[in-house]
Amino acid sequence: MTPDALLGGFTDAPRQSARAFRAALEAMARPGTLWPIDGAAPPAPLSVAAGVLILTLCDGTTPLHLGPSYDLPVVRDWVTFHTGAPLVAAKDAQFACGTWADLMPVDRFAIGLPDYPDRAATLIVEMPALTNQGPRLTGPGIATAAHLSLPETAAFRANRALFPQGFDTYLTCGAQVAGLPRSTNVEAV
Amino acid sequence: MYVAVKGGEKAIDAAHAWLAEERRGDTSVSELSVAQIRQQLTLAVNRVMAEGSLYDPDLAALAIKQARGDLIEAIFLIRAYRTTLPRLGASTPVETAQMAVCRRISATFKDLPGGQILGPTFDYTHRLLDFKLAAEGEVPAAPTAPASLDAVPHVTAMLNRDGLIQTEAQGNATPPDLTREPMELPTTRPLRLQAITRGDEGFILSMAYSTQRGYGRTHAFVGELRIGTVAVEMDIPELGFSVEIGEVELTECETVNQFKGSKTEPPQFTRGYGLVFGQTERKAIAMSLVDRALRWKELGEDNTGAPAQDEEFVLMHADNIQATGFLEHIKLPHYVDFQAELELVRKLRREALAQAEAAE
Amino acid sequence: MTDQTAYNFAYLDEQTKRMIRRAILKGVAIPGYQVPFASREMPMPYGWGTGGVQVTAACLVPEDRLKVIDQGADDTTNAVSIRRFFQRTAGVEVTEATADATVIQTRHRIPETPLTEGQILVYQVPIPEPLRFLEPRETETRKMHELEDYGLMHVKLYEDISRHGQIATAYDYPVKVEGRYVMDPSPIPKFDNPKLGGNAAIQLFGAGREQRIYALPPYTQAISLDFDDYPFAASKADHSCDLCAAPDSYLDEVITDDQGSRMFVCSDTDFCASRRAAGHIGPMGAPRAGADVE
After folding, report:
1. For residue C104, which of A172, B202, C67, C294 is within the disulfide window of CB 3.0 to 4.6 Å?
2. Do B59 and B189 belong to one domain?
3. Do C62 and A28 touch (CB under 8 A)?
4. pLDDT tens digit sequence for B44-83
């Protein structure tokens, strides 16, 4: 195990994970809004936001897929030590983390079953930048319309067409997170 | 002037204080100790452990004391405590064939290896009130015999040797945990057995009884009922072998049931299985009957529509903590909903009366 | 429960909270769909808000101000009991003021004061399945949701109309969410149904005994089921509040003697008290909020 794997977790898990979850909840409930999220210091290339999401949501019961550029000993050891999440291939993952290029093609991920659409993957997509410029978002959680710097539109439109099945997405950059549930309509502008 | 119901906090505190006083009862009568409950109300303790899904006689006795003898309330206390406990590991399956039995009977064979052992049973007591007990009579010591070192093999294993009873599939799969995963229907036998063993004794008893009266009849005989202690062992990966971490008292019942056979299989007996914490034989026998009734599909039998064959019905209604909570919640305020109904009924009556008048 | 330090923040252990949080997020992503979750045995009875309590416990942060209401009132005994539980186990501030609360746990009402962004409304749900009383089997109702087969519900509502001349459901009135799932809004009066859709707050629903969590994200469409010729209509007692004179709030009917006298008062105690504090006085109200109650 890499020595840094032991560091950078929550120092007060009950309270830090509670605050992080509230950011994650607001982000998923209000697609296109950006939320600060912190409390941990994960090893590079994991962003603070991605690392905190993993600490908050993953444990021994949630298989996690690391995209190729994140599938590094230091990341694997950190995730394993702090969460115990089994590291798996894309098709078996409940959570996945990596760059958009890492996670392509996204049709490898679980979209849930017709009678259990909740059994779908959540993708944590690491972004070089995260802003309110980009494709137009409408749907649940959005009063009129929102904009978000998505890595592309086609994949999310295809995912929306699967509703109520489909994967759900967090976009992370630094200590910021945005959410894009499967229910959001995405249009290029 | 209108006085709203206020001061809920004060009322709750006062209710709790009164409850504590009532629990204690007349202070001129000496207080019950937890040890007395554990030692002298053992069957109540066993039921609380079984349906509380926690093997701890001292805590079960404490819960009975705290619950003023209301066993469902005591089970609730144990369940709520149990949920907060960390899961340190899982034991290896207990070997009931190695049980140190204090009672072992078979209804299917007059005598058998290991013998019939009546043990401490109410079975042949005449149910006459023993007024001597009211006067704190100490009992004379029961006669003893040297413990037999002979093996006490399972009756069904003996039948199985001749292929007369269906073989249960062995497996190393980790059974699902009813308390950690939401129930998904249809379910599996391990999950069903788990639900029934912690299910309400009265409910399981009535379900079993209904099968005997023809609602999903399975022609059950008690192949064997055994009560005794078994060792609980746990694999310690660091050591590379398992160690004994304690022992528990269990009641196990295996029923031998009729089976017609099919095109591919010659006629064979089938089994129902019951395993419950403590000396709890009514529950264990009932469990094995309900288990057997629920197996109709895998054994290729007809669904006659009997309640005991209906997995969803049995599993969704067996838990007395769920049942009692939901039942009793109707005493909580519902005046918002009631008001909505009241307005609706008034409106419907107004309209109906107006129509009736118009028709006259 | 005398020693609060013996329990984790907000009572539940972290693994349980993670499991509940994952279910909440999936619920938010699939509005109106009931997500199964491994409900824990709580130290209060099933049917008394264990689902709501678990959802609240999974959402609370130390900075929250929690409001708990039952039948719209902060002072009903079960609301008091649940509020105390979180004061004790999470150490959060509590409030009775809807506008000041960040998390509101409710049974049977949506507050009169419109909710805002940043607020979470947690509902206690007894039976989460809107089709349950039409079809008792989970295996069947799950299939109906999958196939979007809600014919049974429409038949039921239509039978109401043919028998009573109108839809005879006064509370627990089903809604269709974003044109997909039919959802049970918990036993709120249908007066509250119009507040379900397009709400600025996050609405989370927890059913502990039935092991289900579901959600309405903010600004989500939730339409009460009806027919073109029998449109849905919210209703309440045809009175104003006798304490605060509000003409448009949901009212409790209070019997004041055994001669048939009665009065009508807001079910939302905070709303009523705030109105009286602001000088709105009904025929039986005292000028100061709280002066007429003890």
Report:
1. C67
2. no
3. no
4. 999 999 999 999 999 999 999 999 999 999 999 999 999 8
Q: Is B57 left (phi over 0), alpha (psi -120 to 50) or beta?
A: alpha
For residue range C185-211, what is the model confidence (pLDDT) as tens digits? 999 999 999 999 999 999 999 999 999
The answer to whether B255 touches B220, Cβ cutoff 8 Å, is yes
Q: Cβ contact (<8 Å) for B348 and C166?
A: yes
Say if residue B64 is in the same domain as residue B107: no
How far off is chain A from C63, nearest CA to CA, in Å? Answer: 9
Q: Which ipTM did the prediction report?
A: 0.98
Q: What angle do CA A92, C32, A61 make, to 5 degrees?
A: 30
Q: Looking at the partner chain, which of C28, C35, C219 has a beta carbon nearest the beta carbon of A181?
A: C28
Pair (B100, B77) in one structural domain: no
For residue B132, tell me if it sits in a domain.
no
CA B198 – CA B193 distance, rounded (Å):
9
Best CA proximity match to C212, nearest among C123, C148, C143, C151: C123
Structure tokens at C17: 């909270």
The answer to whether residues B187 and B60 belong to one domain is no
Last residue of a domain, one of B56, B82, B108: B82
Contacts of C19 in chain A (CB under 8 A): 61
Question: What are the residues of chain A with a beta carbon less than 8 Å away from any beta carbon of chain C?
Answer: 13-15, 17-19, 21-22, 24-26, 28-30, 56-59, 61-62, 114-118, 120, 122, 139-143, 163-164, 168, 181-183
Interface check for C111 against chain B (CB to CB < 8 A): the answer is: no
- How far apart CA C293 and CA B122 sit, in angstroms, is 59
Task: Spell out the domains of chain A, with CATH numbers in brackets.
Answer: 3-187 (3.40.50.11310)
The pTM of this model reads 0.92
Tokens of A177: 């997170």
Question: Which of B203, B229, B302, B294 lies closest to B255, judged by CA?
Answer: B294
Phi, psi of C94, deg, nearest 5: -120, 160
The percentage of residues in chain C with a pLDDT greater than 90, rounded to a whole number, is 83
Contact B227, B248 (CB under 8 A): no
Query: How many domains does chain B fold into?
Result: 2
Would you say residue B136 has pLDDT above 80? no
Domain contains B331? no
The answer to whether position B2 is within a domain reads no
For residues B58 and B106, membership in a common domain is answered with no
In a domain, B163, yes or no: yes
The reply to whether B314 and B290 lie within a common domain is yes
Q: What percent of chain A has pLDDT over 90?
A: 96
CB pairs under 8 A between B and C: 155
CA distance B358 to chain C (A): 16
Alpha-carbon distance of B289 to B308, in angstroms, equals 9
Report CA-CA distances (Å) from B19 to A151, B59, B67, B104, C98.
Answer: 63, 20, 10, 43, 34
Residues B54 and B162 in one domain: no
More reliable by pLDDT, B238 or A119: A119
Q: How many CB atoms lie within 10 A of CB B184?
A: 15
For residue B284, the enclosing domain spans 96-119+149-168+179-323
**Pairwise CA distance, residues B66 & A13, whole Å:** 34
Whether C59 is a known active-site residue: answer: no
d(CA C61, CA A56): 13
Residue C212 in contact with partner chain A when CB distance is under 8 A: no
Residue B231 reports pLDDT greater than 70: yes
Judge whether C183 is closer than 8 Å to chain A, CB to CB.
no
Pairing relationship of beta strands C93-94 and C103-107 according to DSSP bridges:
unpaired
Q: What pLDDT is attached to residue A177?
A: 98
pLDDT band at C100 (very low <50, low <70, confident <90, very high): very high
Smallest Cβ–Cβ distance between C219 and the set A56, A143, A182 belongs to A143
- pLDDT above 80 (res C288): no
Instruction: Tell me whether residue A71 is exposed, middle or buried, using C-beta atoms within 10 angstroms of its C-beta: 0 to 12, 13 to 18, 19 or more.
Output: middle
